[in-house]
Amino acid sequence: MPMASSPSLSVSAPLSLPLPCAFQRPFIFSPSRTIPNPTRPASFPFHSRTFPRVPSPSHLPLKLLCSRQSKAPVTKESWEKSILKSEIPVLVEFYASWCGPCRMVHRVIDEISAEYSGKLKCFVLNTDNDSEIAEDYEIKAVPVVLLFKDGEKRDSVVGTMPKEFYVAAIERVLKS
Fold first, then answer.
1. Which residues of the chain have pLDDT under 50?
2. pTM of this prediction?
3. 3-state secondary structure of 22
4. 21 in active site
5. Long-range pairs of 63-67 with CB within 8 A, sequence gap ≥ 24
6. What is the dihedral of CA 92, 94, 99, 104, to 10 degrees?
């Protein structure tokens, strides 16, 4: 059917073009592929050869990556006493349990809390459990580290940053 050369072209029936989707291609069986055996654990891709078993986690030695003893959790009940009435500067890490970048910040803050023990108190606050405090300090996303001195917020580090950023902020607060 020849196409009309008029500027307004109307189509009365919807076009049915095949979509380029992997799920629309038919499965092609080849001798190099084998169908997985439901009685054996499947390996990826489904090869017929077996791979050595990986030991279960209960048999592996436990390696502690992050010590939770260096930071104490703080809640809205202990906020005023622990943070606002502290005699030495305080670092508070606002985090969420589901936050991947927060885990990286945990490790950095653990190192910092060991280096600055006696000069700085370190606390963590779960924003899912204590959202009121996070709202008071306008925390919109995690991780956020706030630094307090004499009951006032003095500095903050937003997001996942290298250790030097946190150390620089701590030094600024300690010198003020």
1. 6, 9-10, 15-30, 32-33, 43-52, 54-69
2. 0.61
3. helix
4. no
5. 65/107, 66/103, 66/106, 66/107, 66/110, 67/110
6. -20
Supply the DSSP symbol for 67.
-
One of 21, 66, 102, 122 is an active-site residue; which one? 102
Query: Cα separations (Å) of 116 from 22, 33, 80, 81?
Result: 55, 58, 22, 21
How far apart CA 19 and CA 56 sit, in angstroms, is: 43
Parallel, antiparallel, or unpaired: how do β-strands 144-149 and 152-158 relate? antiparallel
Please name the fold of domain 72-175. Answer: Glutaredoxin (3.40.30)
Instruction: Check residue 106 and give its pLDDT.
Output: 93
Secondary structure (H, E, C), 79-103: HHHHHHCCCCCEEEEEECCCCHHHH
Which residues are 84's β-sheet partners? none
- How would you label 111-121 residue by residue, b for 16+ Cβ within 10 Å and e otherwise? bbbeebeeebb
> Sheet harboring 90-95: ordered strands across?
72-73, 121-126, 90-95, 144-149, 152-158
Residue 99 a catalytic site member: yes
Query: Which residues partner with 155 through β-bridges?
Result: 147
> What are the residue ranges spanned by the domains of the chain?
72-175
Q: Which two tokens stand for residue 174?
A: 């300690």
